[in-house]
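can u pls check wat happens w/ zinc ion
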Amino acid sequence: MQKIIKNGTLITASDTFQADILIEGEQIKAIGADLHSPGLEVIDATGKLILPGGVDPHTHFDLPMFGTVSSDDHYTGHKAAAFGGTTTVMDFVPQTGDDAGGLQADLAAWRAKADPKAAIDFGFHMNITHFDEKIAAEIPFLVEVGITTLKVFTAYNHRLRLGDGEIFQVMRIAKEHGMLTMLHAENGDIIEVLVAEALAAGHTAPEWHARTRPAWGAVESALRAFSIAAQTEAPLYLVHMNAGGEVDMLHYARERGLPVMGETCPQYLFFSEDDLRRPDGAKWICSPPMRSAADNARLWEGLEDSIIQTVGTDHCPFFFDGTQPIIYEGQPIAIPGKELGAADFTKIPNGLPGVGDRLPVLWSTAVNPGRLTPNQFVALTSTNPAKIFGLYPRKGALVPGADADLVIWDPQRKVKFGVAMSQQRTDYNLYEGWELTGYPEKVFLRGHLIVDGEQWLGQPGMGQFLKRKPGAEVL
Ligand code: URP
Ligand code: ZN
Ligand code: ZN
């Protein structure tokens, strides 16, 4: 099966040029001027841009939380990602603490959920939320099965948090096996005190979620972890950067040559604690929380100045009102969501939708006004995550031999964005009513056309699990 995309403008992380792309089977076969091959399907991309499919390094599909589950599963979330131009996602495997099966059982359970549903290609990160000698001995097995990344937390005491000594040990093992540690940075001890005080004082509204999780906790916890990176000489990736001070700490550490990198997410660029004070403030609840306009501004600088390497989403959606069904693929569906915490902010499931919003929202807000070049956009949303997570050049690249994960992007298309367009399986969208210019027109996964305008052509099960290589680049 061969096809050719003609007359498009290719955007890579470093270059912009006009060329045709010849696809053979599932891969890019050739890129060049005026390519021809008799009898093959021709797709005309005149006036359009061709981007490598987006790589979202941070999703949570079908994640159990607070007695419910994140409302996109490994099919619906993949479909939403594809409509937004993303063709690879990386999901986090929870560590259940089931000693009998250990990490292998946790991984097998997540594969069993994902494999039959996957509609785009996917990889996994492993959460390490309980650590002992047995887990230490099991970590190297993950590399054999293609999982080269471990997430640790300095928050969620008694549930997910590791102590500094444990994080130090995890990072030493990671270093030895060419793995990368990812950090959720907040101060769990202080959060615990503040939450207890807030509840005792009768403060139950959503804004208290943010007020009990101070930005300084994220900042000092990030620096603490960077110091562990220095002491172990192991790479570290700071997930969901939300505080301007984290940008400062990342800059400080990188200036000193430490192998540390960072990711932010669109929600932290646009929203603040003020949004939690709205009547529907629960929609903005995630951890870490929204901060301030000054934090938004510093995060933008972090992107513009290449202090931050990636933009992921931390997609972890819940219904705002999970008692009211929505229609999804013709069927009514309702999944308990944010209403669970109507009387107590600590019971509001943490997380929000974004996997399909990331590229269109960022293009309109960053590329159109000239804050980021189209090449920086591709680097942040596709090429850099592919490199950092050991997928490059199979993913994130427009080169012969790469998977033909391609987005034909219409830079002129204007849309009124929102829940109706975004395809995420939830009842709200953070960017409701935003006027966007620039949107995917066609999306190819390994040469297969899976999105054609409004039409979904993908299928559950066509996404492949990506075994990743250890020793990936530190950017
Ligand atoms: O609120 C969030 N972000 N939920 C997902 C879990 C996490 O820590 O990333
Ligand atoms: Zn996290
Ligand atoms: Zn997350």
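The mean pLDDT is 97.
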